[in-house]
Please model this.
Amino acid sequence: MTLFRSITKGLAVLAVSVTASGATEFPDRNIENIYPWGPGTTMAISQIIADAMGNELDVSIPVVSTPGASGVKAFKTALEKPADGYTIFDGYVAPLVLAPLLGNADWSYKDFTPLYSATSNSFAIIVRPDDNRFPDLPALFDYMRANPGKARYSTGAVNNLPHMVLAKVLQTADVYGTVIPFDESEQAMKDLRGGVFDFIITNPGTYKANKDNVRVLAVLSELEEVVAIYDGAPRVQDYGYDLGMSGLSPMGWNWWLVRKDTPADVVETLRTAMAAALARDDVQEKLLNLGYVPTNYGPDQYDEIVGAVGAELQSGIDAIEWVMSKQ
Model:
């Protein structure tokens, strides 16, 4: 009798986990988030969201670092996985929008099914704290106007997103300098402090690690929340300059995605869990404390918002060509 009851109980548990069609309910195992960069602050941000989302689904969601080719490798890796919802694309703007614009990927943002947008991280123009030449952004632009091409700066690698955003601002202000590429932001920071650069572009993580040794001239974002992240620094538009880009365009951001042919019920389950995770106060607080602003755009806003980013980033590419033609 005891054995019979044990078998009966086991069958009942199995029956609960099986749908009428005979398939197990989603999810019944871990889900992977394919993340396009190396370990660092942005990966920690994704893991915060993944952990909260996993709590909602009662599974683990490890964030898998898959760097290479400016995020393209991660997308290709995820595209090789089945369209069953067990693989999430951590869709950063670089592989999702920028790579296709530059001819480095054969997809567009329309080739994926969106869950929710996750976070954004805005860039800022920083100088040495003791550089009295530049008390504010207008002073920097006046210097660049009086000394064409003399100001030396770095945005990291050339033709990346920070380079495009800054180039657009310089174009709208009708000033230019000389950009020096660097693969490592920390090396650019060292050279700024050593006087090699007049200014550089930074992100929240690098700023927070070095803020005692730099001064922010302006934040390259429309978002009011970013002012607090950069300790009260003004935004470009606060000086009366046109940022030249709007919405998500002038910043880094990610939108979690799945393959286009993922079943609708699976997509809905993932969306519900991600929305609940992002709405948690503790998640919002952790993200902001690390310098990342939750965006919380829903799937119904995906086409409108991401489509607009593509058009504005093209204007950033054109602005780089304008600046480079002046050098």
